[in-house]
Amino acid sequence: MSSTISNRIYDYLKDFPPFNLLSREALEAVVQGVNLQYRQPDEVIFRQGDEPLPFIYMVKEGAVNLIREEQDLTGVIEQCDEGDLFGLRPLLANEPYALTAKVVEESLVYAISIENIQQLLEDHPKVAFFMAKNFAGNARVSASESFKGKIFLDNDHLIDARFRLVEIQSLDKSKAPVTCAEDMSIEAAAKIMAQQNVGSIIVVNDDFFPLGIITDKDLRRKIATGLVDRSQNVRAIMSSPVITAPAGVTVADVQIKMIKNNIHHICLTADGTPDSKVVGVLSEHDLLVIQANNPAVLIRSANRARTGAHLREIRDRAEELLRKYLYQEVAISFISDIMTEINDALIRRSIELALAQMEEEGYHKPQQDFCWLAMGSEGREEQLLRTDQDNALIYEDVAEGDEDMVKSYYLKLSEKITHLLNECGFEYCPGDMMASNPNWCMSFSDWKAQFSTWMGAPSPKAVMMTTIFFDYRPIYGKESLATDLTAHIFEAISEQEVFLGFLAKDALKNPPPLTFFRNIMVERSGEHKNEFDIKGRAMMPLADAARVLILSKKVGQVNNTFKRFEKLAELEPKNSELYEQAADAYEILMRYRALQGLKHSDSGRYFKPSELSKMERINLRNSFQPISELQSLLNMRFQLAYFS
Amino acid sequence: MSWFFKSWSSNKKNREYPAFWREYLARFDQKIPKNTPIEEVRFVVFDTETTGLNVKEDQILSIGAVEVIGSNIAIQNSFERFVHQSFTPIASNIEIHEILPDAASESQSEEAAIKDFLEYIGNSVLVGHHVGFDVAIVNQSLQSMGTFKLKNKSLDTGLLAKRVQVPPYPDKYALDDLCDQYGIEQHDRHNAAGDAYLTAILFLKLLGRLRKRGVQTYGELMKGM
What we know:
The structure holds two protein chains of two kinds.
Chain A (H helix, E strand, L loop, with lengths): L2 H11 L10 H8 L2 E6 L4 E3 L8 E16 L2 E8 L4 E2 L2 H4 L7 E14 H10 L1 H13 L17 H19 L5 E3 L4 H11 L3 E5 L5 E6 H9 L19 E3 L4 H11 L3 E5 L8 E6 H9 L2 H10 L3 H20 L4 H29 L9 E5 L1 H4 L11 E5 L7 H22 L16 E3 H13 L3 H10 L3 E5 L1 H17 L1 H11 L24 E2 H19 L8 H11 L4 H25 L5 E2 L6 H24 L7
Parallel strand pairs in A: 7-8, 10-11, 14-15
Antiparallel strand pairs in A: 1-6, 2-6, 3-4, 3-5, 3-6, 8-9, 11-12, 13-14, 13-16, 17-18
Helix pairs in contact in A: 4-5, 5-22, 5-23, 11-12, 11-13, 12-13, 12-15, 13-15, 16-18, 19-20, 20-21, 20-22, 20-23, 21-22, 22-23
Chain B lengths: L1 H15 L2 H8 L15 E9 L9 E10 L2 E3 L4 E4 L8 H7 L12 H12 L3 E4 L2 H14 L9 E3 H8 L10 H7 L10 H21 L5 H5 L3
Parallel strand pairs in B: 1-5, 5-6
Antiparallel strand pairs in B: 1-2, 2-3, 2-4
């Protein structure tokens, strides 16, 4: 091999992520597997559905489009130019390509052998993170200016993902167009419409370019009224010219076009003008259908639901949305925001329905107001799949004597709420940590007293209770009850610094789940023998560490584990790298858990490591690294060595 | 009688030539068929750096080459050799090439470098910018080693560029000019491997244009060259 040429490649790659993260020797090994390829316009490097090639690609010069092909429609998802990586799928999973890579202009691309990269992933967790995150968030890895030197995605990319989503939604749903030739009679065209059961037909010329459109409305107004004879040519009644849009159009664009032109159908053509082939048609009705699984629509239907079964149906639809998001590799922070909004809406609606039932059954709402708290993963805004309920209720203090009456009302109410939530698919908590339990449905003063007890004499059980409680979030009712309780807790913490030590110690109870030989540790016995407990072994240690650290900074309001780490990175710049890695690790864990859950129709908590692809296993293993670093940080900071 | 003479003479040939040359010749037992698609032909794009431009007097300082198969350059299969020459080269050339006789620590004897080069090229089609000079200087070296000239077909990217051009023809066909014209970033100029790499990229771009005009086979490519 020529050292002059390999140095040339080395000098080029070293400026682009993730190669900028590598040591000289590691990058030199990558260079050994590089091929420079010349590609001509319209050449396909790989096609959607093709088996993975043993390379990933980087554009050296020119441009390559990543295209999603759906039935007759194609849409450009992204364009890659100099320094952009693409075709990462073979690294992540041995699955066919999800997109087609087609050359736009004369290009030189580096095809980098997977074999040389795979070893890197094992040795360089940062590179694995980079690859996985970028693969997850984006179809390509951008080398744009804002990105250089950084290894983590920022919010700009999140917004990208949202736009992409809209585009794909429109592509999914537009139907194959129903067309007729320009020399047909109106009667023949109407027969085709009836046969195909459609409300519109596009009149096309020999080249399949759109000339006009005939809709049900034209048939009603011009034929049924006798204005035009049905034996006449279609040209007699068609509306022309047709309003067109390109195949990759967004829902928003279509809506604007319809309003502007006062029409109900948009014809999609190959290049978006009437002088290219018809590829689809979108009606106003199609738009409504597309938006039916839109989060806003789901939330609106949740607000109108009447029964537990109806709530469940909405949550099932939300699961479909989740599945779509996960497969489209949308950023987890965006997905969890959406799912939390939907969950919250379902909980609020359950409470409203339960309050109405109480009223109907003749129970009178006491004058003392209440606040419903979500706890556990829902409290942390990270519940993607339905898990067990964790909730509590606080009501305003009651004058002596009335206590029993008020408490029994709220217990009864809670019983109805938890029942509705159970119908919705959030199962009863096996540990009975629910507002229907008298210990979890108390007045404000009782809660304060309870916390003081837990924190004053921390027992393992008390510590566990508080960990659940520190992740609470008010969902419904008088929010000040929750914020006042938070204020009380922070006050108590500052008086009882030692308590944080107990929490920190608790956060160390699960060491990083690696065996001596760096294999992933599976359960040794019980129902889930030989399965990996992703929640208990990997997610909880991170969530626990995030909680105690954020409490020590006296920051309330931030409940979400990866947002807590992001906040910590901001507050402690010297440890920001570790915190950012931990945030990334948590997102990856959430994604894998949700995918496993969808695959097995369960909570996704337990699975066999062998079910993961090699890349996923490596990522999972790499996500344990921040656990061990965080735990040593906790050990130092809270001087846990002296803790008995 | 004539068949006897033929076989006797080839036996003699085999006995007298050094082993490396016999091995090299053996690679030419079969010609590349004219209808071979261009993508299947192995091209070796190469360049030499020399002490000067006089084929008879000047000598090789380094050889660099890359292999092009089907629009692909595998970096791992690139070639580079520095030659140790015992005399002091002319100062003016050192300035251009920046190779001092002893500066290239990995340098070897000219004979070893040429042997390696023959093994590397095999029966591939040689490509170079103004390749005639580079072939001649290698031949000169081969002659001093007691063998004959290179048997490989060769292609000059300068001539290829002229063939690709449409009128009005530019009057400059130096590597620098063509790199500018085809948007090829110049690095490591006047280094054999660096120039070979640039020439290979130029070659790929020229091939792309010829293919668009319907040049598909080896035979069509070599026609009139």
